[in-house]
Write a structure and sequence with these properties.
single chain; alpha+beta; five-stranded antiparallel beta sheet; 13 strands
Length: about 250
């Protein structure tokens, strides 16, 4: 056998050996890669150990509420009319959400079932509680033009905290007709505004169905109308205290 032939056989054998080594090496690399992927996947879905630290913070509640003027007078008592000056409500609250409700609390008006008693006690009342002139409200941003009395039928009543449900009214598909304070308050009927720590919005009863009124940022102008003509109250001196509750849920 010639030297060249032997050399060729050796080279061929070496090439086959090298190919086999390369192939084996590729298999090892592929196996290692597959193992790494499996290990990585297993590591992504399950932790060997878990630890945590609690993070806490507290934001102190901050609220304020004031009204001006201290008293209002109705100059015209022969027609449905607004008071001589509106009520300016200044508020602040960092609750989310907050709400602002309006009401009267005429404790002198007899409860229904008593002599001369009535379901509705809301509005201006005489000292003996036998006569009541209902009030309605409109809440707006301070820069807004004063509302027209012509739209008074659409305004919400200023509810009294002692109002009772009139059992003679019949519920409908769209309303429960619960005229009591508790029922009206739960339904949001008594709210004149609502908002968050960042913003506020008046309630506008004339804008159905969402009742979204003017945006406000700390001050609300409230117009209170006496239904003197509509209700045709008897002669007497009428007064009440119009209250406001700033609360949160």
């Amino acid at each position: 056998m010639s030297f060249i032939k032997v050399l060729r056989m050796s080279c061929t054998s070496l090439q086959k050996s090298n190919k086999k080594e390369v192939t084996n090496m590729k298999k090892v690399i592929i196996a290692m890669f597959a193992f790494a992927v499996i290990f990585s996947a297993a590591n992504a879905f399950a932790a060997d150990q878990t630890a945590s630290v609690t993070a806490t913070a507290k934001i102190t509640a901050a609220t304020s509420l004031s009204v001006a003027p201290s008293a209002i007078t109705f100059a015209t008592t022969s027609a449905d009319s607004f008071a001589s000056s509106p009520i300016t409500v200044t508020y602040s609250s960092n609750y989310n959400p907050w709400k602002l409700a309006i009401y009267t609390d005429n404790t002198q008006v007899p409860a229904f079932g008593s002599t001369n008693g009535r379901y509705a006690k809301n509005g201006l009342a005489t000292t003996d509680g036998l006569n009541v002139i209902p009030l309605k409200w409109v809440a707006q941003a301070p820069a807004t033009e004063a509302p027209s009395i012509a739209n008074i039928a659409a305004y919400n009543y200023v509810k009294d905290k002692r109002d009772e449900d009139d059992l003679s009214t019949v519920a409908t598909a769209t309303a429960s007709n619960d005229e009591s304070w508790d029922g009206s308050f739960a339904a949001g009927y008594c709210n004149i505004a609502y908002g968050s720590a960042a913003s506020g919005t008046c309630v506008d009863p004339t804008k159905t169905p969402n009742y979204t009124g003017d945006p406000v940022t700390g001050t609300i102008t409230v117009y209170v109308a006496g239904l003197f003509k509509t209700w045709a109250g008897g002669a007497g001196d009428y007064a009440t205290s119009v209250g406001f509750d700033l609360y949160h849920e």
